[in-house]
Specification:
4-stranded antiparallel beta sheet; transcription regulation; alpha/beta; 225 residues; Rossmann fold
Length: 225
């Protein structure tokens, strides 16, 4: 799962990043309005943590741009500007939650997971695809109730494909979502082929009722058998 933190305060930004990385989230950072607009214009995120007070612009304008362009990113406003008007305006613009500063990092983590459960799992704790169950909170996968041991990247690839079931996912979109925004600097996608190959074998060995189908020259699609 991929998170963008838009926060101008460096120490806060790094603390939030460290907290979420401990939960196995892939975290990208933006410290200004300009950086934020650049990132959301190019990359996709599962959740955006958005500060209202940015040195070169208003975070609510970032939120407005996200919603006007129809992006599916979940947005949690994280701001010290804790007036009722700002909260109401943010929620009216389409924010999923509002977390006033100061806050405990444990609460931040809980809010992010709650928003993602609502968006990805319809509020449930598990994602069920065929005979596969995915527990996002604990990064666990089971097939017919038996644990499937995956490394972190294998889990992230499977989760991303499952949340885009029956949709064609390009190699570049998969790479960027699982490995980060700077993956476009890579010369090739050999690292993806390796993870997909290992993941396919593990799914086959456990008789999973899904198939990762390669679409030559484009990407992958997850199909239920």
């Amino acid at each position: 799962m991929k998170i963008l933190i838009i926060e101008d305060e460096k120490d806060m930004r790094q603390n939030m990043k460290a907290t979420l990385e401990k939960e196995n989230f892939l975290v990208e950072l933006a410290g200004t309005y300009k950086d934020a607009m650049s990132k959301i214009g190019i990359y996709d995120y599962d959740c955006i943590l958005l500060d209202i007070m940015l040195p070169d612009g208003n975070g609510l304008e970032v939120l407005k741009a996200i919603k006007e362009k129809g992006y599916g990113d979940s947005v949690i406003i994280v701001s010290a500007k804790n007036s009722l008007d700002d909260k109401v305006q943010g929620l009216d613009l389409g924010a999923d939650d509002y977390l006033p500063k100061p806050f405990h990092m444990a609460e931040l983590n809980a809010r992010v997971k709650a928003v993602l459960r609502r968006r990805k799992f319809d509020g449930a704790n598990l994602l069920q695809i065929g005979n596969i169950s995915i527990d996002m909170d604990n990064h666990q996968v089971s097939v017919d109730g038996r644990d499937l041991e995956l490394n972190r990247k294998e889990f992230d690839v499977l989760f991303y494909l499952c949340t885009n079931q029956n949709r064609l996912v390009s190699k570049s979109a998969l790479a960027e979502h699982v490995w980060g925004d700077y993956i476009d600097q890579a010369d090739n996608f050999d690292f993806i082929y390796s993870q997909i190959k290992n993941l396919r074998k593990k799914l086959l060995d456990h008789h999973a009722e899904v198939e990762i189908k390669a679409v030559y020259g484009i990407g992958y699609k997850l199909l239920v058998s």
